[in-house]
């Protein structure tokens, strides 16, 4: 099994190979001499202490540059055996320079998850890594945190097992600045719970006429495209920025199978509906409706003009690089079907949205 998982395409983004590990962790090191100092460009750089006089030290950088600074301004360096450590709680010196160095080195190797005790620090890779596949998901099911490389799935699995074993509610806080990856990681957590807690109940039939099969897991996962259509927008910092906060509750039955869910939302940025700053866009749904993905919808909503002619939604950007509003609209509309909205309910929602454009 261990051999098999290391062959998974995602493994290289989770843990370095034994060869790399040996190379990294056996570098020359002198704990008395090797330290970190502040650097205007790099944040912190490694230097070697050449001499000490009172509370001043002369340090030399890798490039041979010498500098005299206060000893207090240096930060201790960890021995190379901690290079790219998976849990920063292990570090002998937990100073800013060491934490940033560790996260940076792991990020350069595209290992985006790192523990810091109970926390899991994530760095946005801005590229799709094969670490959320079904095979990677299976690797983490039922495993202890220290048995596997850091991953959001491990945190989710631990929460799931604590819930099943201790019969206690569990919560996960996902936080960070705009564009940090909260929305993406939240979606992965929900998908993970959908996989481990699959209800396996008889498939429900959704809405007469559509005859689509939808499991409860599908329905819970599909809340996202709809919420994003109405509550996410392009900002200067993030093409898909959530403009509201949310508290997602997923319910499990006593057997640990998914039984339902609900979402509380807070503080939608309402001003965006009528005003967009330069470089930003209104909520995705307006442009999705205009995309013609749902045949005849624009006609029914009397949206015959071009987007630019609807003032409230066209004060800045109207398209987003890399986002196809037509595909997104298909996803939104299909998600409504999977969540068992009726045709009338869907139309009413679209009509209300269009009404704002007509104002
Ligand atoms: N794990 C990831 N893998 C690949 N791309 C990612 C990942 N996390 C984030 N991204 C990219 O970064 C973008 C911004 O991430 P996301 O929308 O999750 O940020 P956020 O923290 O929710 O921001 P906001 O607070 O503005 O809603 C995503 O649209 C995606 O392109």
From TrEMBL:
UniProt domain Myosin motor: residue ranges: 83-359
GO cellular component, one term: myosin complex
Alphabetical list of Pfam families matching this protein: Myosin_head, Myosin_N
Keywords, sorted A to Z: Actin-binding, ATP-binding, Coiled coil, Motor protein, Myosin, Nucleotide-binding
Myosin N-terminal SH3-like domain span: 30-79
N-terminal signal peptide: none
GO-annotated biological processes: actin filament organization
InterPro entries: Kinesin_motor_dom_sf, Myosin_head_motor_dom-like, Myosin_S1_N, P-loop_NTPase, SH3_Myosin
Family of the protein in this entry: Belongs to the TRAFAC class myosin-kinesin ATPase superfamily. Myosin family.
Protein name from the UniProt record: Myosin heavy chain
């Amino acid at each position: 099994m261990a051999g098999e998982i290391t062959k998974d395409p995602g493994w290289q983004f989770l843990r370095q190979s034994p060869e790399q590990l040996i190379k990294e962790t056996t570098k020359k090191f002198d704990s008395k001499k090797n330290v970190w100092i502040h650097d205007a460009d790099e944040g912190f750089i490694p230097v070697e202490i050449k001499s000490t006089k009172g509370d001043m030290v002369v340090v030399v950088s890798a490039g041979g540059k010498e500098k005299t600074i206060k000893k207090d301004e240096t930060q201790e360096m960890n021995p190379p055996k901690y290079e790219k450590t998976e849990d920063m709680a292990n570090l002998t010196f937990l100073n800013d320079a060491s934490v940033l160095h560790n996260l940076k080195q792991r990020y350069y190797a595209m290992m985006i998850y790192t523990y810091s005790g109970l926390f899991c620090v994530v760095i946005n890779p801005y590229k799709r890594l094969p670490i959320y596949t079904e095979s990677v998901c299976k690797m983490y099911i039922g495993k202890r945190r220290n048995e596997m490389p850091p991953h959001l799935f491990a945190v989710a699995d631990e929460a799931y097992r604590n819930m099943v074993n201790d019969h206690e509610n569990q919560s996960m806080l996902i936080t960070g600045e705009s564009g940090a990856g909260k929305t993406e990681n939240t979606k992965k957590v929900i998908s993970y719970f959908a996989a481990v807690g699959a209800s396996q109940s008889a498939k429900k039939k959704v809405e007469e006429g559509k005859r689509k099969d939808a499991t409860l897991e599908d329905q819970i996962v599909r809340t996202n495209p709809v919420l994003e259509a109405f509550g996410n927008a392009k900002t200067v910092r993030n093409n898909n920025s959530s403009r509201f906060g949310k508290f997602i509750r997923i319910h499990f039955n006593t057997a640990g199978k998914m039984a339902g869910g609900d979402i509380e939302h807070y503080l939608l940025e309402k001003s965006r509906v009528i005003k967009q700053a330069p470089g930003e866009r209104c909520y995705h749904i307006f442009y999705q409706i205009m995309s013609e993905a749902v045949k005849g919808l624009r006609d029914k909503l009397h949206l015959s003009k071009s987007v630019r002619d609807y003032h409230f939604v066209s004060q800045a950007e109207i398209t987003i690089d890399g986002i196809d509003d037509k595909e997104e609209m298909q996803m939104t509309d299909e998600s409504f079907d999977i969540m068992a909205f009726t045709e009338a309910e869907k139309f009413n929602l679209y009509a209300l949205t269009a009404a704002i454009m007509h104002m």
